[in-house]
Amino acid sequence: MLKVALVQTRTPATHAGALAHTAPLIREAAAAGAKLVITPECTNILQRDRAKLFEVLASPESDPVIQGLRALASELGVWLLIGSALVRRPDGKAANRSMLIAPDGAVTATYDKIHMFDVDLPTGERHRESSAYEPGDRAVVAEAAGARLGLTICYDVRFPPLHAALARAGAEVITVPAAFTRPTGEAHWETLLRARAIETGSFVLAAAQGGLHEDGRGTWGHSVAIAPWGEILAKADHDEPGVIFADLDLAEVAKTRAAIPALDNARAFAAP
What we know:
With about 270 residues, this protein is α/β, with parallel strands linked by helices. The chain is about 30% helix and about 30% strand.
């Protein structure tokens, strides 16, 4: 069994606040025996004012939250997936990046969010991720704590081909760190996550931001761990900061995919 922890946060609008908020929750997860700890999207800062964000946006090498969490993973001896950090690229553009940290503090894999959330919601909220972030162009599978992880971020959950590609590449666990809006979270969050688990025969681990943040943004919370058959292993029925735990029997992945071989039965077809 692989014991995992999903950290639910309400990330502040500064790096210092974010590190002070997140580190105790990671310590709590490690103290309870988790070997793999996952944090949400925007772990290092949540600031919707783009001008203010870009004033403090840093490279991964100089970001105080990333470096602080690398040191913490090494101190605690755990695998840590920073669900995503908002970072500055060498070309000056920004990236929304998952970062996998080994128990020695080394960064062993990164993934830049592929799908940009550009939408006008019925509530009047307007989001244009593509105006600030450069999308990634490659899917990533990485090994951690004896499992093969397929990395995704938030809005990626709405694109089944990405998840199928990760599963075909050997992913047993698909991570979906998120900062879901409250309207879409209430309507779609759990349904989409369960669908991705069932379609791919994979564990899905979704650590989320939750509540009303310093920058005025509201996020859905309700972090959840889902088994390959689609059943809920653990979930937070709220948007408060905290930690949930799940034990993953990785043998269930092969068993489920053998029972429903959808990945093998898929066929190419001509579009209408």
